[in-house]
Amino acid sequence: MPIVEYISKLIVRRAVWLVLCSLVLGIFFSNISLAYLLPLIPVFLAGMMGSAGLMITMRDLFRSGINVSKISIILASQFILSTSVGFILALIFFNVISDLPNLALGQVLHGAMPSEQTTPVWIRLTGGNTALGIATLILSTIASPFVSPVMVLLFAGRWVNLEYMLMFESLLLSVMLPVVVGSFIRSKYNAMARYDNVFSAASILFALPTVAIVGALAASFLSLQPLSIVLLAVVASLAHFVSTLLAGLAISKVLRWDALDTPVSIYNLSMKEFTVTLGVITMTGLEPEVGVPASIYGMMHMASAPIIARWLYSTQIRKNTS
């Protein structure tokens, strides 16, 4: 397996460049990406989630010193606060200013999604509490089939007639089940621990097509819509992203959490798993345009994640040296 290990480590080290290349390819070959990759989103999503599950056992999750109160606050804010902000922005931009029900639904839908799978990586780069970050990510993923459909129906039912069971089944089959099965395999076979680099690389490879789809959706939307509508979509997603960033920072400051927990709050609230959003859209038969807010939001958080990590890390260093 040395060659597999070498290739896996190379993929992990070059992940940023691979993501950028996928994004560019998706933009330039948007028709191909939407025609051939978008229908396969559930497969890519299940691969990502299964790879994530293979990297941690439930035993490890609770051994990591799980802080129930902090995780509860983060998850409540992540699902309830973010979805509420998405609804308010959708109401203003896509109901009052313009009449775009698909974008309104997309804004709410993405706000109700679980944490993005790379959040522990960014938390680790900041020197933050990685154990808490992993625990929050896994529990957010497991909770999403039960919480996300309720939030979407509660806030977006006025725009689109959605079936609760269809959303629940899509999240259960493509998100929760692969994570649980992966974690079960990891728990049963201790030898799996030696392949963590392979699982990390697999997660990245499964994510690359979804990044291409994000670029394709954004490019298609930009080419088909007038500038005024494009600006509305960008401003709405930017406001949503900044609001969740500030909310994550505010929660940590107001509750006086340890500085190491601040990145956990910030990243879990602001970085939503756009692959899950696209998976739900595909499996429930919604229009691809519903994924535009997730695509714009996703590109924003991908671009800003390393900048935020650098800022949080430098802040932590200053505190330690003062």
Automatic annotation (TrEMBL):
Its main location: membrane. The keyword Cell membrane does not apply. This is Bile Acid-Sodium symporter family protein. Keywords: Membrane, Transmembrane, Transmembrane helix. The keyword Transmembrane applies. InterPro entries: BilAc:Na_symport/Acr3 (IPR002657), Bilac:Na_transpt (IPR004710), Na+/solute_symporter_sf (IPR038770). The chain crosses the membrane at residues 15-37, 43-62, 74-97, 131-154, 166-186, 198-222, 229-251, 294-313. It is found in: Membrane. It is a multi-pass membrane protein. It comes from the Archaea. GO terms for cellular component: membrane. It comes from Candidatus Nitrosocaldus cavascurensis.
